[in-house]
Design goal:
The chain is of the alpha/beta class and about 525 residues long. Helices cover about 45% and strands about 15% of the residues. The protein is built from 17 helices and 18 strands. Helix 11 links the parallel strand 10 and strand 11. It is globular, with a radius of gyration of 26 Å. The N and C termini lie far apart (about 75 Å).
Length: about 525
């Protein structure tokens, strides 16, 4: 297209939210009017399905659950008085608890006030809070927050060693809806032991965010933890950032969570409109459908041009891929759906992968995240009339143009600045876009059977490890690997057993391997000590 045509197309497809100051530009996606008209009936069905979801219809049929994360920022939409009251009481409890912590009315037994927070969670219980903390956290927050989001011992040690003497004034939040998330359980047990080793009562530092009656809730009650905050079965992990999961850590850090909720509520109102050009989430869903032919054939590359938004791509990776990556649709048909998401930040990552994006395999569409405000104060002129922020903007516009020249599709989301209201709106925009797109492709966006399968396989591996150790404990002489597998009742799992004993040997767990490490089948194994 020539410049005049592109300019007109930009004007035709530009969306602007006057109250939020957010722009959405899908004009550089190469769909045509015929495609839009073909998709309109399906979009109307998606609008109606979203209306029904918000009204309390079972939207997660596999688990027979309502999907209610939208109610969290507008309790008047809740389908019954009980849910409305629970949302309100939880928000009030967050506000009261946070105020008491900041004022020192709730304090640790051996220090004048809390100074730090360790948030232990994984997946949706970590990615959202981490993204918000990096986007909105102050240089000198009310409490300094640290995340344990894996069961990596070295990673856990790093956080605990970083705290050193401040552990005495550290609040620990453990986040798990079921209370059975093993990675989270492991982190909690490791942190708890550090408190025990120093002779401190862990419960006086501990908070549980979990479901009613969960294993974690029972532990918190039996050990008299400092506080319990409920997670609801109608809020999924990847849509939980604007629930207590994300709001409590953010509030403790000093982030304006009421502004986040207000921004999300305002965006929700815009994304309920049954008019494509007046609904930014519908515009995103249409663009995604076009890019991948409704089958996710192209990757979504997220490139925010702001350091504080660097984790947005990681947050979106789970929201999009866990919601849309499904083998079967709602009719039980095998469809293999999904959209792969990756990215980091601009302009840093222009140097990493834009060369391929412009000239290599055209298997992607780009999403630029633009922020108009450079900083809170005036900027130095690096060159006459040119600031560092002008360069950042120039790199974004230049990259958009360079991709367009090669007919590589792109979307641009523009925020006026990075603040709590804008981040809340951004989260709400993408939550709704995922929901609408899921309806367009007829998949259940609110379950994750693949994740559960991985957890089951991990549990089976650890059960196998227990059997292997039992066999080794009953044997006085080295066992060939094949014999060990047979005695453990898992001859077909010999490769997994080899990797188990190799890991045990590497960590000083009493297992020793004899033989040529390059010839695993010839190894012999013994447990000493």
């Amino acid at each position: 297209m020539d410049a005049a045509t592109l300019w007109q197309r930009y004007q035709d497809w530009l969306y602007y939210h006057e109250q939020l100051g957010i722009y959405l530009d899908i004009s550089r996606m190469s769909f045509d009017d015929h495609f839009v008209e073909q998709l309109r009936p399906r979009l109307e069905q998606a609008f109606l399905a979203m209306d029904a979801l918000e009204a309390g219809e079972i939207a997660n049929p596999d688990e027979q659950r309502m999907v209610g994360h939208y109610w969290l920022r507008d309790e008047d939409l809740a389908p019954n008085a009980e849910i409305k009251a629970e949302i309100s009481s939880t928000l009030n409890k967050i506000a009261t608890f946070t105020t008491d912590i900041h004022a020192g009315r709730i304090k640790p037994p051996h220090a004048p006030r809390f100074t730090d927070v360790i948030a232990i969670g994984i997946g949706g219980s970590a990615l959202g809070p981490q993204f918000v903390s990096q986007a909105l956290g102050a240089l000198h927050p009310s409490l300094q927050i640290h995340f344990i989001d894996n069961t990596d011992p070295a990673g856990i040690d790093r956080i605990l060693e970083l705290l050193q003497d401040r552990l005495v004034s550290t609040l620990v939040i453990t986040i798990s809806k079921s209370g059975n998330t093993l990675e989270t359980r492991n982190g909690m047990v490791e942190v708890k032991q550090r408190f025990i080793d120093r002779g401190w009562d862990f419960g006086k530092h501990a908070i549980a965010i979990t479901g009613y009656g969960s294993k974690l809730a029972k532990i918190a009650e039996s050990e008299a933890w400092l506080a319990f905050f409920p997670m609801h079965d109608w809020v999924g992990g990847r849509t939980s950032e604007l629930s207590v999961v994300g709001l409590l850590p953010a509030a403790l850090e000093g982030i304006a969570i009421t502004d986040m909720l207000a921004g999300a509520k305002t965006m929700d109102q815009a994304t309920r409109i049954h008019d494509l050009k007046q609904n930014p989430a519908a515009l995103l869903a249409l663009a995604w459908y076009w890019a991948g032919g409704g089958q996710g054939k192209k990757d979504m590359v997220i490139l925010p041009y702001k350091d504080s938004l660097m984790l947005f791509s990681r947050y979106l990776q789970q929201l999009v891929m866990e919601s849309l990556g499904k083998e079967k649709d709602l009719s039980g048909q095998t469809v293999y759906q999904g959209i792969a998401v990756y990215g980091n930040k601009g302009s840093t990552d222009q140097h990493a992968y834009v060369q391929q994006l412009r000239e290599g395999i055209p298997n992607f569409f780009m999403t630029f995240i633009e922020v108009l405000k450079d900083r809170d104060r005036g900027s130095l002129e690096i060159e006459p009339n040119i600031t560092a922020g002008d360069y950042l903007s120039g790199f974004l516009l230049g990259t958009r143009s360079a991709l367009s020249e090669k007919r590589r599709d792109s979307i641009t989301v523009t925020l006026p600045e990075v603040n709590a209201k804008q981040i809340g709106a951004l989260i709400a925009l993408y939550e709704r876009a995922v929901g609408l797109y899921a309806t367009l492709i007829n998949v259940n966006a609110y379950h994750q059977p693949g994740v559960e399968a991985g957890k089951k396989a991990a549990a089976e591996t650890l059960a196998l490890q227990t059997r292997v150790i039992q066999v080794l404990k009953s044997t006085l002489t080295p066992l060939p690997l094949e014999s060990l597998a047979a005695k453990a009742g898992s001859a077909e799992d010999i490769e997994t057993i080899y990797k188990i004993v190799r890991h045990l040997a590497a960590n000083g767990r009493g297992v020793e391997l004899y033989g040529n490490r390059a010839d695993p089948a010839g190894l012999q194994v013994i447990l000493k000590g």
